[in-house]
Design a protein that fits this description.
This protein is an alpha+beta fold. The chain is built from 17 helices and six strands.
Length: 431
C-alpha cells in the first residue's frame, strides 16, 4: 500500500475551492480528495489552472476555445498525477491522468505545430517546480527539506521526459490519422490556394492542419514511372527535406502515386533551402523552392519547386535534388522549350553536336565563361593543361562561327541550357 507523506496534508489552495467543484476532471479530483483530503486536492486543481494560464498566456495559439480546454484538462491531469506520485510514492502513469493524450488530435486539427505542444510541457514544468518547491519550503521540516526538494525535482523531470515522448508520439499518430482521413478535402483546399481562389483562412488552416500565416518552403518529390518508389518513400523524402531546412511544421500532400507536394515553416525566421545530407530511396527526386511569406509565399514557393522539378525531370545530371535558386535561369529560359531549342541552336551553331569531341569543347567553353575567361582558372577546374583549354576554346569558337566575346551573355545562357538539359535543347523536336 502507498505511504502518505505527512507534509502534503498541509497543502491548501490560495482561494477556497470545493472539490470536485471547479475541477476539469471532477472524478479524478474527488478520488485524490478521498485519499489526501480536500485541501491537497484543491491545491493540485489550482496548480493545474495556473499551469494552463501560464501556457495560454505565453502561447496564444493554444488559447483558442477547444484547444484551451484540452490544455486545461491536461494541466490538471498532470498536477493531480504529480501530487499523487509525490504524496503517495506512486508511479505516475497515463492511466492515472485521463484525457492527457486527447489534446494532440485537437491541436493537429487546428494546424498548430508540435513545437507549441513541446514548449507547453516545459512551461508547465517550470510552473510546477516553482509552486512545489515554494510549498516544500513552507511546510516541510527543515531536516527533511533538502531531500524532499531533490525528490520533487527528480519526479517532475521524470514526468516531463515521459510526457514529452508520449505527447510527441501521439501528435505523430494524430497527424497521420488526420492526413489519412482528409486527403481529398485537403487536396481541394490546396488546389484552391494555388489557383488563387478565395479560401477562408480559418477553414483552410483547420482542414490542412497547417498555419498559412508563416513563411513557407515548398518541396516537390517525384519518381519516374520507369523507376517507381513506394509512396511512403516519397512522403519520407519530403519530410526529411523540410526537417533539414529547419521546418518545425509541415504539410505533406500525395498527388497520385508518383508525386508529393509538401510545405514547411518555422516560427523563427524563414526556412533554409537545404537538401537532406543522405540521398533518398533510389529513383526519388526532390525539387525545392525558395521561402515566401503567407498565402502568396505558399503559392509562389510551390511554383518554384514545380519549375525546379520540371527542369530536374529533363536534366542530364546524375542528381537527386534540384534547388530553384540554382536553376532559376534554366527554368525561366526553358519555359517555352521550342523557343529554347531555337535559341540554343542560333547561339551555338555547330556546337550543338553530340559527339564526344564537340561535347568536350562545349563544356570547356562554358567553364571558361564561368571563370570569367580565365585560362588558368578553367585549366585548374578541369584538371587539364592551360594550352588544352586555349585549344578547346579556339575550336569551340570555330564551331560556333564567331568569337566567344560576341553576344557573350546569350552564349553563356545557351551553354548553361545545353549542359543542364542536353538533348532536350540540343536536338530538333521530332514531329
Amino acid at each position: 500500500m502507498a505511504t502518505k507523506r505527512p507534509w502534503f496534508a498541509e497543502l491548501e489552495p490560495a482561494a477556497p475551492r470545493e472539490i470536485p467543484g471547479g475541477s476539469m476532471l471532477p472524478e479524478r479530483a474527488q478520488m485524490l480528495a478521498d485519499v489526501l483530503g480536500p485541501g491537497p486536492a484543491g491545491w493540485a486543481v489550482e496548480l493545474g489552472a495556473l499551469m494552463a494560464a501560464n501556457i495560454t498566456a505565453a502561447i496564444p495559439e493554444l488559447a483558442v476555445d477547444a484547444v484551451a480546454d484540452e490544455v486545461a484538462k491536461g494541466c490538471e491531469a498532470v498536477a493531480l498525477g504529480a501530487l499523487s506520485a509525490l504524496a503517495l510514492d506512486d508511479q505516475v502513469s497515463f492511466a492515472a491522468m485521463p484525457g492527457i493524450l486527447a489534446g494532440p488530435m485537437e491541436v493537429v486539427a487546428r494546424g498548430i505545430g508540435i513545437e507549441h505542444m513541446l514548449r507547453s510541457i516545459h512551461l508547465a514544468h517550470s510552473t510546477a517546480v516553482t509552486v512545489l518547491l515554494d510549498a516544500a519550503d513552507r511546510v516541510v521540516p527543515e531536516a527533511q527539506r533538502f531531500a524532499e526538494m531533490r525528490r520533487i525535482n527528480e519526479a517532475l523531470f521524470g514526468i516531463v521526459d515521459v510526457l514529452t515522448k508520449r505527447m510527441a508520439d501521439e501528435y505523430a499518430r494524430a497527424h497521420e490519422a488526420w492526413l489519412t482521413s482528409s486527403v481529398a478535402l485537403r487536396a481541394e483546399i490546396v488546389e484552391d490556394l494555388l489557383s488563387g481562389s478565395a479560401v477562408p483562412m480559418d477553414r483552410a488552416t483547420r482542414i490542412l492542419g497547417y498555419d498559412l500565416s508563416r513563411r513557407h518552403l515548398a518541396v516537390v518529390v517525384w519518381t519516374a514511372a520507369t523507376r517507381p518508389a513506394e509512396p511512403i518513400r516519397l512522403r519520407t523524402a519530403a519530410s526529411e527535406t523540410l526537417a533539414a531546412s529547419g521546418c518545425t511544421s509541415t504539410l505533406v500532400l500525395p498527388v497520385g502515386a508518383q508525386r508529393v507536394w509538401a510545405w514547411g515553416s518555422r516560427t523563427a525566421g524563414p526556412p533554409e533551402q537545404v537538401a537532406p545530407a543522405a540521398p533518398p530511396a533510389p529513383g526519388v527526386r526532390i525539387a525545392i523552392g525558395t521561402a515566401g511569406a503567407g498565402v502568396e509565399g505558399f503559392r509562389h514557393s510551390h511554383r518554384q519547386a514545380a519549375e525546379a522539378a520540371r527542369v530536374g525531370a529533363l536534366s542530364t545530371r546524375d542528381a537527386w535534388s534540384f534547388c530553384y535558386q540554382d536553376l532559376d535561369v534554366v527554368a525561366m529560359l526553358s519555359t517555352d522549350l521550342p523557343a529554347a531549342r531555337e535559341f540554343v541552336s542560333r547561339e551555338l551553331g555547330e556546337l550543338v553536336g553530340n559527339t564526344e569531341a564537340v561535347t568536350a569543347v562545349r563544356h570547356t567553353l562554358k567553364r571558361y565563361l564561368d571563370f570569367d575567361r580565365s585560362l588558368a582558372g578553367t585549366a585548374a577546374d578541369l584538371h587539364v593543361a592551360r594550352n588544352t583549354v586555349a585549344y578547346r576554346v579556339q575550336r569551340a569558337e570555330q564551331l560556333r562561327g564567331r568569337p566567344a566575346s560576341v553576344r557573350r551573355l546569350q552564349l553563356h545562357a545557351a551553354l548553361v541550357l545545353a549542359e543542364e538539359l542536353g538533348d532536350a535543347v540540343l536536338r530538333p523536336q521530332l514531329d
